[in-house]
C-alpha cells in the first residue's frame, strides 16, 4: 500500500508540502491542475511545472484527482467527441510526465453534496454533514441555502459561475435517463481505453456521493451491484476504481469490505473515510477511528491487506480540529491523524499476518 495525501496546489491550499512531509509514510501527492475547466487540455508545460514543485518536496505525482469529465460527454451530445479527443491528449501528456492513475467521477452536474460544511460535533470539532430534511429538490434553492452557511467556501461543482448556468444544464440533462447515462459512460470509456492501454494509465472512477439520485438527476456508482456492472461493462484492466469508503458508506446497506474483497484487482486508488449514520437518515463525517462511525474501518483495512493491496491510499475528508482554517474536509490535522490510525492498523496487520 502506498500512502498519499491530496493537495490543491501552491496558493490554493492552507496546507504546505513541508507540512505534509512531516506526516509519517506519505510518498505521493494527489494533485490536479485545479484552474482547468472540464474539457480543457492539460499541457505538458503546465504538468511539468506542478511535477517539479511536488517532486522537489520529495513526493511522487503518480495519482491525479481529478481530470473532470465535461457535461457534454455525460449528456451524450455530439460535441462529446471533441471533448473525448481533448481528454485523450491530456492522458497522453500526463503519462509522458509519469502519472499512473487518473481519478474522475461521472456524477451529473455536481460532485459531492452536503447540507452543512462545518457541522459541530460533540467534541468541539466540525465536519461535513448531510441533513436529509434540509435537502431541497430544487438545486438552486439548495445552492443558496448552502452558500449561506459555508463561510465563503463552496462544494466542487457548486461554484457561483456554474450556478449561473444551472437552468441550462438541467434542461440539457432532461433526456438523460439512468440507462442513457450508463451508455454515455460506456461510450467514453471505450473511446479512451486504447489510450490508457498505450500509456499504462489506470482510470479510477470515484463513486457517487451521496450514493443515491439527487435533485432528480440519476446517479450510477452507488452500490456493489452497480460497481460490478461497471467493471463488466468495460472489462479492461485499465478500467479501475477509486473506491471511496466514505461515499459508499453513506448508505448503511453497503458492505465496503465485501466490495473490496470482490473487486480488489480493479482498485487502483483507495479513499478511506468513516461515516456515522443517524436514524432519521442524516449522516456525519467523523474521525477515522473505527468505533466513531459505522463503515467498519478495521474490516476495510483487513480486506485491503488480505487482498495484498499495493495500490494508492489516502484518507478522504477530515474533520476541522484545533481551530484550523482550511478547505472544508481538507485540513492538515485530522487527515494526518487519520493517516496515523490507518498506518497503525496496517503495520499491525503486517506484523501479525506478514506482508502479502
Ligand atoms: C470527493 C470528490 O474524494 C473526494 O474528496 O469528495 O470530490 C472526489 O475528489 C471526486 O468526486 C473525484 O472525481
Ligand atoms: Mn472520496
From TrEMBL:
<dbReference type="GO" id="GO:0030145">
    <property type="term" value="F:manganese ion binding"/>
</dbReference>
<keyword id="KW-0464">Manganese</keyword>
<dbReference type="Pfam" id="PF03786">
    <property type="entry name" value="UxuA"/>
</dbReference>
<keyword id="KW-0408">Iron</keyword>
<comment type="similarity">
    <text>Belongs to the mannonate dehydratase family.</text>
</comment>
<dbReference type="GO" id="GO:0008927">
    <property type="term" value="F:mannonate dehydratase activity"/>
</dbReference>
<dbReference type="InterPro" id="IPR036237">
    <property type="entry name" value="Xyl_isomerase-like_sf"/>
</dbReference>
<keyword id="KW-0456">Lyase</keyword>
<dbReference type="GO" id="GO:0008198">
    <property type="term" value="F:ferrous iron binding"/>
</dbReference>
<comment type="function">
    <text>Catalyzes the dehydration of D-mannonate.</text>
</comment>
<protein>
    <recommendedName>
        <fullName>Mannonate dehydratase</fullName>
        <ecNumber>4.2.1.8</ecNumber>
    </recommendedName>
</protein>
<dbReference type="GO" id="GO:0042840">
    <property type="term" value="P:D-glucuronate catabolic process"/>
</dbReference>
<dbReference type="InterPro" id="IPR004628">
    <property type="entry name" value="Man_deHydtase"/>
</dbReference>
<comment type="pathway">
    <text>Carbohydrate metabolism; pentose and glucuronate interconversion.</text>
</comment>
Amino acid at each position: 500500500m502506498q500512502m498519499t495525501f491530496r493537495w490543491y496546489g501552491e496558493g490554493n491550499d492552507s496546507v504546505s508540502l513541508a507540512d505534509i512531509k512531516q506526516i509519517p509514510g506519505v510518498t505521493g501527492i494527489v494533485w490536479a491542475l485545479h484552474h482547468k475547466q472540464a474539457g480543457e487540455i492539460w499541457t505538458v508545460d503546465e504538468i511539468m511545472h506542478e511535477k517539479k514543485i511536488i517532486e522537489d518536496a520529495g513526493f511522487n505525482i503518480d495519482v491525479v484527482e481529478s481530470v473532470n469529465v465535461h457535461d457534454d460527454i455525460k449528456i451524450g451530445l455530439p460535441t462529446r467527441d471533441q471533448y473525448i479527443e481533448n481528454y485523450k491528449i491530456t492522458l497522453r501528456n500526463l503519462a509522458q510526465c509519469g502519472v499512473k492513475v487518473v481519478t474522475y467521477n461521472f456524477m451529473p452536474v455536481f460532485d459531492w453534496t452536503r447540507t452543512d460544511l462545518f457541522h459541530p460535533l460533540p467534541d468541539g470539532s466540525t465536519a461535513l454533514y448531510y441533513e436529509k430534511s434540509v435537502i431541497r429538490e430544487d438545486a438552486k434553492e439548495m445552492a443558496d441555502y448552502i452558500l449561506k452557511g459555508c463561510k465563503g467556501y463552496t462544494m466542487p461543482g457548486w461554484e457561483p459561475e456554474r450556478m449561473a448556468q444551472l437552468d441550462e444544464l438541467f434542461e440539457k440533462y432532461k433526456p438523460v435517463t439512468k440507462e442513457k447515462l450508463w451508455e454515455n459512460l460506456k461510450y467514453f470509456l471505450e473511446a479512451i481505453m486504447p489510450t490508457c492501454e498505450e500509456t499504462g494509465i489506470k482510470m479510477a472512477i470515484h463513486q457517487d456521493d451521496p450514493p443515491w439520485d439527487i435533485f432528480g438527476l440519476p446517479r450510477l456508482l452507488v452500490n456493489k451491484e452497480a460497481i460490478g456492472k461497471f467493471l463488466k461493462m468495460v472489462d479492461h484492466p485499465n478500467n479501475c476504481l477509486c473506491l471511496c469508503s466514505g461515499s459508499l458508506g453513506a448508505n448503511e446497506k453497503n458492505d465496503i469490505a465485501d466490495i473490496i474483497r470482490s473487486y480488489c484487482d480493479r482498485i487502483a486508488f483507495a479513499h478511506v473515510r468513516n461515516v456515522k449514520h443517524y436514524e432519521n437518515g442524516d449522516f456525519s463525517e467523523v474521525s477515522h477511528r473505527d468505533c466513531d462511525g459505522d463503515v467498519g474501518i478495521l474490516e476495510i483495512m483487513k480486506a485491503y491487506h488480505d487482498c495484498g493491496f499495493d495500490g494508492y491510499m489516502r484518507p478522504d475528508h477530515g474533520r476541522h480540529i484545533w481551530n484550523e482554517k482550511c478547505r472544508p474536509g481538507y485540513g492538515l490535522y485530522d487527515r494526518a491523524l487519520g493517516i496515523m490510525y490507518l498506518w497503525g492498523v496496517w503495520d499491525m496487520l503486517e506484523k501479525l499476518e506478514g506482508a502479502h
